[in-house]
Amino acid sequence: MRNREIAELLYDVADIMEFQQIEWKPRAYRRAAQNIENFGEDIEKVYEKKGKNGLTEIPGVGESIADHIAEYLETGKVEKFEELKGKAPSGTAELMEIRGLGAKKMKKLADALEIKTMSDLKDAVNNHRIRRLEGFGEKSEENIAKAIENYEKSHSRIALGKALPLAEEIISSLKAELSIRAPDIDLSKIIYTGSLRRLKETIGDIDILAEANEEQAWKMMNAFVSLPEVGQVISKGRTRSSIILKEGFGIDLRIVPPESYGAALQYFTGSKEHNIELRNIALREGYKLSEYGLYSKNSGEQVAGRSEEEIYRKLGLEYIVPELRENRGELKSAVRNELPRLVNAGDLRGDLHLHTNYSEGVENLETMIERAEAMGYEYIAVTDHSRSQRIANGMDIETMKAQWKEIEELSKHFRIEILRGSEVEILKDGSLDYPDEILKELDIVVGAVHSGFATSEREMTGRIVTALENKNLDILAHPSGRLLGKREAYSVNFGKVFEAAAVNGKVMEINCQPSRLDLNDELIFRAKDYGLKFCISTDSHTASDLASMRYGLGQARRGWLEKEDIVNTYPCSRLKEIFKKLRD
């Protein structure tokens, strides 16, 4: 039964009205809430059977409140209530998002402790001032602290490497549940949308879209809110529900009918800028485009909407994959049928950056080779850290030569080709961490900056450009040095870096580590104009890290890269020939 949930909604609205000094209405909403709370039947089932007329049979529920309840049951929210929150004083709307902190309690906190913002509330919790108020206590304060924690988690951006597996896990769990509860539902139409589908490096929210008829929709929503991963149900409606996972992240599920599925998928995938321009194109062509479908402006008839492909086709456009939908020229290219043929996972033949327990890796050399071969790769480059990286157990020359011997021995037992390499530190003066005679014996040299970040743009640019002019360097690893959410990119003039790399035939790495994704898609897009080549490499420190290739691949696709732009799509013989020419 959802009677308690609906009652709490109406109680909260009454509190908000009272907080805003709206007269008489709060009393009506509280009376309706109290009657719903004590109503003997399931209000949701009453609505399903009798519609709004059934709701008005409940004492105290007039047509207006019945309309609001119906809207909430259908969509999971009420627009008028959202508007009320929006009219509240600055900071109040955010505080109203804290689960369990209704407007009445909030007004008491504001009056007694002058709490007007989230910062004020957190300060009061941390200093244990709330528990001393009448009507609150220690348990109330603990609940508010937990609610703040969940709010911040659900409103913070999540790294792609966290969000994508999480969304896949929830969708897989939902499909498993539905295969039992509702086997007639098309499970292939359950998909994540938004910036996650576009594979952005960080994700604000996880949104899922599904296709179902009205009867199926209720079954799906019931399954969704009862998944074992769910920590809290925020709202539940026939077309939209919101949950917070036990991990603290928020997920929304929207359900649309088959005739609108493609339009909704296109709309909720975004980006906003892409959608605005696409709607303008539709208007110029005599159509109106929304999340419900593509309609003729004259007749109002729906002409497309079941699939994304038919919408783009009806507008005279080549289909645009989600990763390109950032309004960077993709729509103009689609008109001319000139979109790039993006690199795919199946194009990748090897991984050119990985570590073993010779330096800071966890696994031994054989384990890394076994996993790479099992993944179907033709080659890998073993690139443990160089000697100056003591914190990463960098290899001295003697240790490196011992590794060469092990590589030679293991090569006899594996099909995959094992390239001798190193992730060599670019020192402050731009020189490399090993002498030239050692570098020449390596199949591949990956240069990187791991220290001395706090320097001027001129100095860092000079350092990297000097390294790029060294004929023994093949690849520049994680070129910006950023760590998502932890460390900003160092100051460097990328125009000069890309120019130097192009002149000297160097390769730019797209590092797949979820904490790096470096180069990012914007720099990739920019670097391509210099005619540069790239590699997509995992920088693996464990065998399981090798699976992170898909995150870097996503950034490469967002940067418009094609197969020929990526050197680790080449056969090993061609790859080695390229690097050999650089050395000569």
Q: How would you describe this structure to a colleague?
A:
It is built from 24 helices and 17 strands. A seven-stranded parallel sheet has the order 11-12-13-14-15-16-17. A five-stranded mixed sheet has the order 2-4-7-6-5, sandwiched between helices. Strands 8-9-10 form a three-stranded antiparallel sheet. The protein is elongated and about 90 Å long. The chain has 584 residues and is an alpha/beta fold. The chain has four domains: 3-154, DNA polymerase, domain 1 (Orthogonal Bundle), CATH 1.10.150; 158-256, Beta Polymerase, domain 2 (2-Layer Sandwich), CATH 3.30.460; 260-335, DNA polymerase, thumb domain (Beta Polymerase, domain 3); 345-583, TIM Barrel. α3 (43-55) runs antiparallel to α4, α10 (160-181) packs across α12 (214-225) and α22 crosses α23.
Provide a brief overview of the structure:
By secondary structure, the chain is α/β, with parallel strands linked by helices. The chain contains 24 helices and 17 strands. The protein folds into four domains: 3-154, DNA polymerase beta, N-terminal domain-like (DNA polymerase, domain 1, Orthogonal Bundle), CATH 1.10.150.110; 158-256, Beta Polymerase, domain 2 (2-Layer Sandwich), CATH 3.30.460; 260-335, DNA polymerase, thumb domain (Beta Polymerase, domain 3, 2-Layer Sandwich); 345-583, TIM Barrel, CATH 3.20.20.
